[in-house]
Amino acid sequence: MLLRRQLSLAIRRPIEIGNPLVFFAIVVALFPLGIGPASEQLAMIAPGAIWIIALLSSLLTSDSVFRSDFDDGSLEQLLLAPQPLYLSVLAYLCAHWVVTGLLLALVSPVFALMLNLPAEAVGTLMVSLALGTAVLSLVGGIGAALTVGLKRGGMLISLLILPLYIPVLIFGTAAVQAAVSGAPVGPFLALLGAMLSLAIALGPLATAAGLRISIDA
Amino acid sequence: MSSRIGAAQKGLYNLTVMWTFFHKLGSPPWLYGIAGAIVRWLLPLTILALLVGAAWGLLFTSPDFRQGNSYRIIYIHVPSAVVALAGYYVMAIAGAVSLIWRMKMADVAMKAAAPVGAALTFIALFTGALWGKPTWGTWWEWDARITSMLILLFLYLGVVALYEAFDNKEAAGRACAILSLVGMVNIPIIYKSVDWWYSLHQPASIKFSGESAIDSSMLYPLLLMIGAFYALFTCCLLMNMRAELLQRESRTAWVRRLVKPDGPR
Prior knowledge:
heterodimer; A: mainly alpha; 9 helices; 0% strand; B: mainly alpha
């Protein structure tokens, strides 16, 4: 139910769904401008570039996951509610993933073509992005929960959670690069899946504890 | 029967002793005093061990047959890296203790460990870069271990920054505790990175079981330096804790008495 509420809230504010996508598109456009439009050069950096952009857009949006509900007090109600906070938090983060990560994964083929990524790697890119951004959302939730009560949380949250994003970035780009070179991608996707299961099991616990602290403070 | 009662009494006694110990551990003046006493004898020992270990390692061991004299930076690099990782455990365990049992002194320990650990991580990275130039021909390489040590540095800095960002220091301590526990994920990755990704950084030469890949004439000064760095970490931690205690308790009578022994009560 909470998931449906979050999703319908997001759909009612289409600008906020659109913002990460526009951000994605603009940063993709920056790469050819900054590095030069030579297509083989772009193809070489494409896996890493797309992953870094996905990471940044997840980071920028995760700051606001809990913020509005914290400000109007409904988060406090949620903490007092009988259902386990673990599940509520999971619903919030799942909604965040659907409107940022999943959406980015779905539109990523377009950007992959813009950056000249070989077509055979596009499928892997989508799958790795879908798996990886879910981890990013769950990890980002921890940072968001810890900083939601702070006035100047914006810069801090990137310092807190970017280090934790790094493993996802490593294996996400490794999967896409393996697909480009024709190597098996299974191991990398499996590692991303393992990280995802770990993040689902433990991430919401840390997030819930962080929310309790932020509400108390 | 009587022996049973005796055992029970003994158990009760042990429990009481333990309880008073915990009780005392929660008392800032007691902790302040005992930390001061430990530092007073540990610090000279540490300095002595550092001097002896450095002199032994830098002056009296034979140069490496392949690396020449440049390998000698191992006597700084390895101890600082080892203790930087151990310091993270100290910080995270102290954080867990303060989170679970709400022990304020564990919170003090966690806060005190973060900057020391960050400094040691920085030293490890810096000396690693200095060592890398003559031996690998590069200051920096995006090798798994180097990168994960860099992440460790960021984790330490994140804890420091998060603590400073909160106005409510109690909430700050608990938030940092959660962050440091989450960051624990990185520690096994750092330990294992050289085995999982067979990269430029060599695997561990010192092994607890089996033959070490380092000659004993080089190993002993290295072990001495590692011990000295542990002691140095402990000293810095305790001194930091003392400063933090004074700051937190600055309004209490015992701190005032300490600062002004014959001032107004």
